[in-house]
Queue: 3 jobs
Job 1
Amino acid sequence: MKQFLLRNASLVVFVIFLLMIGFWLVSDDIDTSNSQTEQRIEGTYAVTRVYDGDTIAVDVDGQTETIRLIGIDAAEIQSPYSEAECFGNESREYARSLLADKVVRLEADESQDNRDDYDRLLRYVYLDDTNINYQLVLEGYAHEYTYRDEYSNQAMFRAAEQQAQQQQNGLWADGACSDFAPEPSQVDDDQLNAQDSGNWQSSIPDGCVSYVDAERHIGQQTCVTGPVDHVFVSATDTTFVNYCSDYRSCPFSVVLFSDDKADFPAMAQYEGSVITIFGEIRTYEGRPQIILENPSQLRQ
């Protein structure tokens, strides 16, 4: 009897073990599948907007996805958060002439992240068989640009930039920027009035600045005060505290990377509140921001 019970107990343990292995394998397959789906938003999609020479938007199954072109950097255009740079408008218009209302093919690069810190998909953009990223560099409408890690087409893009310089294409032409005079950067009055309607500016601490004036203090250690419009968490688990409904036209934002997220629980609680952020004002692609790394940087 004792041997019978032992044999059955062993059988039960073995069956449970097999079930656990099977569950682990199925779970692993599911997670991998989801990961691959996120990594591979590729294929053909309609272009819905061309923001500038290196950023566009496409329609993906009814959802708008912003695409940052891999391996290039185009000059800035005039906006509430950045001053226009030489050849920024020309780059945007050239990109629009190629891509506006077209259907393009997106291709990822395994050497690069799926998305950047602003939740934009990092992709090569193809129109028929033409690599638009490469074309923009070759024709002198963008620089070759390596961000963090080397990408698979780096050598080809750098050679294209050298050729553009030798042939004096686009921004490399003699006198291309001789008549360029950037307009003074300023915050849109309508945006300022809308954001200031709560009379919160009267509560700005001494020595701090309004978020609408942040771009005037780039590179400085200071404190910035303003009302939070919304808190957004990207697919890369980066948290953005935005002071405007559209971060692309906002003069300031706060960035919290995933490594420091545990020190800042429940960031969404600040939506609709006036907060003050301490730190160095830096820029990312022309957008003023402060990176949160320590809870002492945030006060309400």
Job 2
Amino acid sequence: MAKTTGTALALILALAAAPLMAQTTEEAPKTEEAAPADATSTEYPTGQDVGAPADGTGSTYTAGTFESWEQRCVRTESGADPCQLYLLLKDQSGNSVAEFTMFNLPQGSEGPAVAGANFVAPLETLLPAGMTMQIDTAKSKLYPFTLCTQVGCIARIGFTAEEVTALKSGGNAVITIVPFVAPKEKVELTMSLKGFTAGYDAVVAANDKADAAAAANGGAAAPAEGAAAPAEPAPAP
């Protein structure tokens, strides 16, 4: 399985010191005085990313780690930030292959699902085969891919309360996809559930707080699903 890597180029500027000139009897012209020793750092702003709000609103950050799981959140003006649970899936060789993010749905949502998830597979995945997920020894479930973007193809998953409980009490879940170039083969990705319970409960608490803050301001529920943009997974073999 190919593994994507990035390259970076560093540009080094060499500065040569000018030779010292002999002192003359004439007084050298005065130049602009250097900043006083007691100058504060506010006089030397470090700048900010172009297009980014000064307070960081809309930026993502990791609020906590739970074994291999991460609680990723997006900053909001209210300070009550929506979050989701993130896991990077690797193959047996340690190559990054896919991503899995999960979040609770707002209370009162229609349908049997109480939680949602996005699974991002490589672009070279055979889409008609869908993806299957098996929690421990339970029966596998098949999910279709919804769309593809530059970062990969996404399958949207809904979990019932019973399935969330199974994830919390489980040991591992196995996700299976089929490579486009090898339709007779299967790629199995083991998703460790160690740390899942603590991570998911932290996400639920953060999202409930964000929903309450949004409701108090007369807005809609906080978009936990968009709490963090997925990184680009490596292509399938």
Job 3
Amino acid sequence: MQLPTIRRPGPYILAGLAALLLWGFAAVADEVLEGDTTVFDSTVKGWFRAPGAPETPWGPVWLQEAVRDLTALGSFTVLGIVLVATVLYLAFSGKLRSALFVLISVIGGTILSTGLKAAFDRPRPDVEAAARVFTASFPSGHATVSAVVYLTLGLLMAEAVSHGRLKAYFIVLGILLTFAIGVSRIYLGVHFPTDVLAGWALGGAWALVCWIVYSLSLGKDASAGDTAERRS
């Protein structure tokens, strides 16, 4: 039996999803500014702390080490390496438009995250963290930029293949990596849960907006090429 063809979501659907994510970010930011997230943040943080030892992450030492390895996938160093490797590959393959799309998406998302951190200037959680931190807390830079990078790459890889299951695989993989990195920040105690929620929403919205612009530009070029071919 032939499987049904999976259609790519249209720009209006993606724009609606991006708007929903931006609304989510704004809602979380508003609650944070009003100081109404204390109970929620404390409750969720408690899920990742050892019973009776709020300074210690839950689980054995090997798990803590594994989570530190996982959170490194969202570090600026690792994401920077992924960015450079991807952009160079696309450029050397002659896909300059795709290379520019990835570059603008990731750098723009990083600037957006950094600027909002400076604007909100939220202090980090008052817990001894298992990883060093140097910036403000809201929104989570790891959650924001990893969402931009891995969702952008997931969408790009999904666009490059024709098989529906492969498309779903690349997109789900990007989502799962983003989710795992965000959760690792809460587990390690370096972010409040609302920092991560806001980072996911912001990074996802930015990735979708960039993808919509990129897809529309490709569509216009394809339409122009078809028109020129018919005229000839």
